[in-house]
Design a protein that fits this description.
Elements lengths: L3 H6 L5 E3 L8 H9 L4 E4 H4 L2 H14 L4 E7 L8 H10 L4 E6 L6 H6 L3 E6 L2 H9 L4 E5 L14 H11 L4 E4 L5 H9 L5 E3 L1 H4 L8 H9 L5 E4 L7 E4 L2 H13 L9 H4 L2 H7 L23 H25 L1
Parallel strand pairs: 1-8, 2-3, 3-4, 4-5, 5-6, 6-7, 7-8
Antiparallel strand pairs: 9-10
Helix pairs in contact: 2-4, 4-5, 9-15
The chain binds flavin mononucleotide (FMN).
Length: 325
C-alpha cells in the first residue's frame, strides 16, 4: 500500500509502532521495521545518551530498514539529559524521531539540519496545527481510546481524525484503538494516511516483555482500562489492577488536594517490575481500550501481514462489493 506516510518514511506498510516505555527496545523496533512498518525505540527508557547510543546500535545490527526514536516530554521528577539524547540520535544516523508530550519546537532546527523526519504525537487538533507550524513532517493523532496519555479533551478518534483532516496540510496517522485491518481501513476512510499502534504490539512474540503482560492483554476486555491522574492534569489510561485500584481510592479520598507524592508508590518505578519481572499488579502501566480486540500473541510479521491482507479484503471485496451492488 502506498500512502503519504509510506512515502515520507520509506516503508512498505503504513503502520507505525509508537514509543512505549520499557517495551520499545531494539527487539520490537527491529521486528516492526523488518516486517515493513516503522519501529520506534523509546529514548527515555534508556535514560542516558550512552545507553541510547548502544540501543540504537543494537537495532541497527538487527535491521537495515528505517526505524525511529521516541522522545517524550512529560513532567518528570528528574528531567532527562535531552540535549545529550538528541545529540546521540543525530550522531547515530537515525532518520525519524517521534516526539510526544510538549511540542518539540526547541529541537526542530537541529533535527531538520540533520535531515531527520519528525512525527509529533498529539491529542488535539490545536496541538497538531502547532506541530505543523513549527515544521513537523507528520503527526500521530492520539484519540481518547489510546493507551498512555490521551490529554484532557476526551475526543475519540471518530471525531478527532476527521477534524484533523479538515485542518491539517501535513499527513497524519491514526493512533489509539488501532488493532487490525478494520482499524486501518477506517483510519484511511477518516482521512489518515496510516496507523500507529501501541498496546497491540505489546502482545507479539518479539515484544521484549514478560509473558504475564502479553497474557494480561489477551485476557483484558475493552472495559478493563482506567483513567488516572486527571486531577494532576496528566491523565493516563492504564490497565486496571490492584495497584491502580489503590491509586483510584486515593484520588477519590484526596480530591483536588492530591499531589504526585501521594501516588508515587503506584506510579514510580513500576515499568521494570511489570515489563521485566511480570508483576502486572505492581501499579499503573499504560494500556489502551484496544485490549478488547487482542485475542492472540502472533509474531510481528504475522500481525502486520494479517492487518494488510484484512485491509485489502475489506477494500476490494466488502466495500467494492457494496458499491457494485
Ligand atoms: C505500555 C505503554 C507505554 C507507553 N509509553 C509511551 C512513551 O513512553 N512515550 C510515548 O510517547 N507514548 C507512549 N505510549 C503511547 C503509545 O506510543 C501509543 O501512542 C498508544 O499506545 C496508542 O494507543 P493504543 O495503545 O490504543 O494503540 C505508551 C503506550 C503503552 C501501551
Amino acid at each position: 500500500m502506498k500512502t503519504q506516510i509510506t512515502e515520507l518514511f520509506g516503508i512498505e506498510h503504513p503502520i507505525i509502532q509508537g514509543g512505549m516505555h520499557f517495551v520499545g527496545l531494539a527487539e520490537l523496533a527491529s521486528a516492526v521495521s523488518n516486517a515493513g512498518g516503522l519501529g520506534i525505540i523509546t529514548g527515555l527508557t534508556q535514560g542516558t545518551p550512552e545507553k541510547l547510543a548502544a540501543e540504537i546500535a543494537r537495532c541497527q545490527e538487527m535491521t537495515d530498514k528505517p526505524f525511529g526514536v521516541n522522545m517524550t516530554f512529560l513532567p518528570a521528577l528528574r528531567p532527562p539529559d535531552y540535549p545529550g539524547l538528541f545529540k546521540v540520535i543525530i550522531d547515530s544516523g537515525v532518520k525519524v524521531v517521534e516526539t510526544a508530550g510538549n511540542n518539540p519546537a526547541q529541537w526542530m532546527p537541529m533535527l531538520k539540519d540533520a535531515g531527520i523526519k519528525v512525527i509529533h504525537k498529539c491529542t488535539a487538533v490545536r496541538h497538531a496545527l502547532k506541530a505543523e507550524r513549527i515544521g513537523c513532517d507528520a503527526v500521530s493523532v492520539d484519540g481518547f481510546e489510546c493507551g498512555g496519555h490521551p490529554g484532557e479533551d476526551d475526543i475519540p478518534n471518530f471525531i478527532l481524525l476527521p477534524r484533523a483532516g479538515e485542518e491539517l496540510k501535513i499527513p497524519f496517522v491514526a493512533s489509539g484503538g488501532m488493532a487490525d485491518g478494520r482499524s486501518l481501513v477506517a483510519a484511511l476512510a477518516l482521512g489518515a494516511d496510516g496507523i500507529n499502534m501501541g498496546t497491540r504490539f505489546i502482545a507479539t512474540q518479539e515484544a521484549p516483555v514478560h509473558a504475564n503482560v502479553k497474557q494480561a492483554l489477551v485476557d483484558a476486555s475493552e472495559l478493563d482500562t482506567r483513567l488516572i491522574m486527571r486531577g494532576l492534569r496528566n491523565t493516563e489510561r492504564v490497565l486496571n489492577n490492584a495497584g491502580v485500584e489503590r491509586l483510584v481510592e486515593k484520588e477519590k479520598a484526596l480530591g483536588a488536594s492530591i499531589k504526585i507524592e501521594d501516588i508515587l508508590p503506584e506510579v514510580a518505578g513500576i515499568y521494570p517490575r511489570v515489563m521485566k519481572d511480570g508483576d502486572i499488579s505492581a501499579g499503573a502501566w499504560s494500556c489502551g481500550m484496544v485490549a478488547g480486540l487482542i485475542h492472540d500473541v502472533p509474531t510481528v510479521k504475522e500481525l502486520i501481514d494479517r492487518i494488510m491482507s484484512e485491509a485489502e479484503a475489506i477494500i476490494t471485496r466488502r466495500l467494492a462489493g457494496m458499491q457494485s451492488a
